[in-house]
Specification:
It is built from 5 helices and 5 strands; from the N terminus they run E-E-E-H-H-E-H-H-H-E. The protein has 126 residues and is α+β, with helices and mostly antiparallel strands. The longest helix has 12 residues.
């Protein structure tokens, strides 16, 4: 089994960063957890909570995230994938790639799918 921790880092520490935890066994992938902030992820690992509170920004240590991922998955993390905008210049606008993967209709689509409105997903097969 391979455990993958995915982090969609926010542009600043005041905005929430998304976290996903996935397992892969013999080509079958399973979403173990998806949440909209480090705090939601850490709380889930500590107390098994699925938070419905508004996500907030924070800085989480790598050791805390890896420990929470290992506890939640029941196995150590094998791979960490990070989506983080990097630049030597200040980033003042959304990246072209961000605009391409979030079509203008995304809010309308999410509004029709209750699971997307109700907070982090529970375990599903992808």
């Amino acid at each position: 089994m391979t455990i993958i921790l995915g982090i969609d880092a926010a542009w600043t520490a005041t905005q929430p960063s998304g976290v996903a935890l996935v397992s892969s066994t013999d080509g079958n992938r399973r979403l173990i957890f998806a949440g909209s902030s480090y705090r939601h992820f850490l709380d889930h690992a500590d107390e098994g909570l699925i938070s419905t509170s508004r996500p907030s920004g924070s800085v989480a240590g790598a050791a805390a995230l890896l420990a929470a991922a290992g506890k939640t998955a029941g196995a150590p993390v094998d791979l960490v994938a990070v989506d983080m905008p990097l630049s030597f210049e200040p980033i003042t606008v959304r990246r072209v790639s961000d605009n391409l993967v979030r079509p203008p209709m995304a809010p309308a689509i999410a509004a029709r799918i209750p699971r997307l409105r109700s907070g982090p997903a529970r375990s599903v097969t992808i």
